[in-house]
Amino acid sequence: MIAELGLFALCWSLVFAMLLVIVPTLGLWYQKPTWCKASGVYVLGQFVFVAIAYLCLTLCFLRNDFTVVYVLTNSSISLPWFYKLCAVWGGHEGSMLLWVAVLSLWMVAVCGLSRGLDDAFRVRVLVVLGGLSVGFLLFLLATSNPFARQFEVLDSVGRDLNPLLQDPGFLFHPPMLYMGYVGFSVAFAFAIAALWMGRVESSWAKWTRPWTLAAWCCLTAGITLGSWWAYRELGWGGWWFWDPVENASFMPWLVGTALIHSLIVSEQRQQFVAWTLLLAICAFSLSLVGTFLVRSGVLTSVHAFAVDPLRGLYILIFLLIVIGGSLVLFALRAHTLQRQDKPDVVSRESALLLNNVFLAVTMLTVLLGTIYPLLIDGLGLGKLSVGAPYFNTLFIILMLPMLLLMGIGVHLRWQRDVLRTVVVRLGWAVILSALLPFVSLMCFDRAMTVPIYAGLALACWVILSTGIALYRRVQRRGLTGLTFAYLGMVIAHLGVAVSVLGITISSGYGIQDDVKMAPGDHIQIAGMHIMFVNEENLTGPNYHGSRTRFDIQDGQRQATIYPEKRVYDVGKMPMTESAIDVTPFRDVYIALGEPLDETAWSIRLYYKPFVRWIWGGGFLILTGGFLALIDRRYYLTRKTHDMVIE
Amino acid sequence: MHPHRKRKLNIILLILMVIALAITLTLYALRQNISLFYSPLQLATEKIPAHQTIRVGGVVVPGSVVRGTGDLLVHFKITDYRRTIEVSYRGILPDLFREGQGIVTQGQLIDAQHFNAVEVLAKHDEKYMPPEVKSSLSSASQSNLPQSPKANL
């Protein structure tokens, strides 16, 4: 009964989404303000019914209703309740439902928080978002109904959630990522609405930027969480694999980063408007392509749930309509948005333009590496895979000038600046950042290679130069002159530097060792003494296995960790639960391989210095984005309603 | 030249240079890091240069897994039910590596019958078959095919 109720609610939400597209559009056409005003009601209606559908599916999971196919394949009686809650998005159908639910949530937010917007514009934004909802709701109902029933298997205990997903990381990572993915739909809708109107109001960027920042923050959080989860659970100690699915989330992030920077120029200088619109379209298109790549099962990975050509075809057509349509609209209207006042080559505008070029090029190289195997396979030229070294090489090469630029860009003035004064101002920062890595590596007596030196020097450079910029700002305007947006920029840029430090040091000085060990054996790694103490049996709610104990002696510090090997009862699937001894400056990571004889195991040991800094940096970037989001200027203008018409 | 135009030209040149550099690097890096996929049958019939990193996929032959004593060296055979190739690997096998499971290995060919793997990939769950392996198997005899995931539903 609950499942049918859910399906019924889903149908109703489709009706509301369709009304949202049709009625206000007709209202705009026939100039009937009351028809346009109805959009708010439809948004609310769609949200309520999608929420009901989502709750129904959750209830099906909690009640172990295994006549629902989706519950049968993604849950089991012995699954703990909190994993049941997130098993709702553990498969294809449920994750699409989450997509729609998140989209509805953003729509309600836009509807409620943008009352200061010009009505004609606001209605168009909602209509575009409604159109996207129709696409996804139809997709759910036509090809991937999460409420489908079966009556063949009646005595099942459920096929259980994929054990890889039974991890606290799974509670937060997918919803955050989806909030980000789907959040770009708001920026997209703002861009399409502006193109639809045929003009861009001067306050357009001011309205778009907070929404973009909010989505970008969620995506940053999602990616950081995902990387941390992969490190603990999937990856045997790796934190980024250039897996197609990771790339699918990283590409919108890169474009989103470019977008929040180009929006600054659009907001403050009324420039780059066409480019900003294009970026907004691209960011969301990449989110859609990401969904397509991941959900259609074209790509092989943990994240790909099912292979169903009908779904693939539907998404392909949907993509074609959304991306193709918006690009055509852009091509038709963009030339009307040109501005004439060109800035100087040495100016903040140019620095931000270069930032955008680098980010866009980086995104394109990642895109190429991701779809190249698909293209070759599609053309029947054989099957191949593109290795991680490809991505690493290109990414590092593109990031070096980017970091260099980051230090200079924050010092440049709008419109025109003199390079010489900036160089003089930053002279000692350059010298210091060239020397510091050298001296510190000498102090710690570490070998130095060119990539490590470059990474450390550039991180120092970004930190010093950002610090100087902050100091000068405080000197000129006082502490009260610091806006949240400026503080956000400083913290986010420092976050990038912190991540670079973490990446450089952990990959440069990390140690990996695969060894055979039996209880009583010990080993020396990076000056630490690690002892395999014992092994005991382990029984969990839906698994059993072995738990081992390792003692780590690191100078004065004593630690004990317990790596596990679990076998999940339903799927008979073995899982490695690694154990990590964490300090701010290094991780010791131990994972059990396989039992080799009665007592001995193959064991993987990692010593990873500064690896926590990678996610620490991610957290700082997120904080920076959040600070920029709560800047006063976005909320002051709302009261004055100044929509200046060009 | 008009200074305004000159400035514009400079910007365009700069952007073009960045893009050209990126394209050159991309193509170079791509060429270096592609690994082609082969089935054991293709290995036997096609000529593959030694010391080139390739991927080989198939089903692990039951009973073929032999572990070395003392270190982490392991030998096993993978098959597409037409040809079989012997693989040696030093390191820890993934959780889902087991006899009868479809896997993909990456490494270098020693000779037509021996493959030296540096990486063994077995992902997803026990019902899962890597798509490359699946398509190379579906062209082989159907009788030995393990059940496809959809057959369970």
Kindly describe this structure.
The complex is a heterodimer of chains A (646) and B (153). Chain A is α+β, with helices and mostly antiparallel strands. Among the domains of chain A are: 1-154; 511-612, no CATH class. Chain A has 19 helices and eleven strands. In chain A, strands 3, 4, 5, 6, 7 and 8 form a six-stranded antiparallel β-sheet that branches. A four-stranded antiparallel β-sheet of chain A has the order 2-11-10-9, covered by helices on one side. In chain A, strand 4 and strand 5 form a beta hairpin. The longest helix of chain A has 31 residues, at 204-234. The termini of chain A are far apart. The relative contact order of chain A is 0.08. Chain B folds into two domains: 1-34; 37-140, Beta Barrel (OB fold (Dihydrolipoamide Acetyltransferase, E2P)). Chain B has three helices and seven strands. In chain B, strand 1 (34-38), helix 2 (40-45) and strand 2 form a beta-alpha-beta unit. Chain B is elongated, with a radius of gyration of 23 Å. Mean pLDDT of chain B is 77; it is low at 141-153. The interface between A and B is large, with 51 and 39 residues. Strand 1 (384-386) of chain A pairs antiparallel with strand 1 of chain B, so a sheet runs across the interface.
Condensed summary:
The complex is a heterodimer of chains A (646) and B (153). Chain A is an alpha+beta fold.
